[in-house]
Design goal:
Layout (H helix, E strand, L loop, with lengths): L1 H37 L4 H11 L6 E9 L2 E11 L5 E11 L16 E5 L4 E2 L5
Antiparallel strand pairs: 1-2, 1-4, 2-3, 4-5
Helix pairs in contact: 1-2
């Protein structure tokens, strides 16, 4: 009677550890993407930088937006398959100040626009402001 309960608790704790680890990885990926755009990179570089910060073959969605002319926001969403078959999303975002004198090559540095790049390399259309 105690052994099945111990096994269930162990599996649940493994899921919590996996979830916490992937949340930290997603946050690091969002920071890398925001940093890439903030130092003068193209918005597409944000998706590339974020993907490189994640483990290989990890599917993620990366969205890049400029909430203000001097800020860039990168959102990363990763789906995590837990040991007992459930899949949950983990999302993280990072905001960085755009370096003075730099202009995003695809966004023009004007702010307000949003574009997204998914894990398979396709780009979503800009949302109306």
């Amino acid at each position: 009677m105690v052994l099945p309960l111990l096994a269930a608790v162990t599996i649940a704790l493994c899921g919590v550890v996996v979830l916490a680890r992937d949340a930290v990885l997603a946050q690091g990926a969002a920071r890398e993407g925001a940093r890439a755009v903030a130092v003068g990179g193209d918005r597409s570089l944000a998706a590339t930088a974020a993907r490189q910060a994640l483990p290989a073959r990890r599917k993620a969605t990366v969205l890049v937006s400029h909430p203000a002319a001097d800020l860039v926001r990168v959102q990363v969403r990763v789906w995590i398959a837990l040991p007992y078959g459930a899949a949950v999303p983990v999302a993280a975002d990072a905001v960085a100040a755009v370096e003075p004198g730099t202009v995003s090559r695809s966004g023009g540095g004007t702010g307000g626009g949003t574009s997204g790049r998914t894990s398979n390399g396709t780009t979503s259309s800009p949302r109306p402001s």
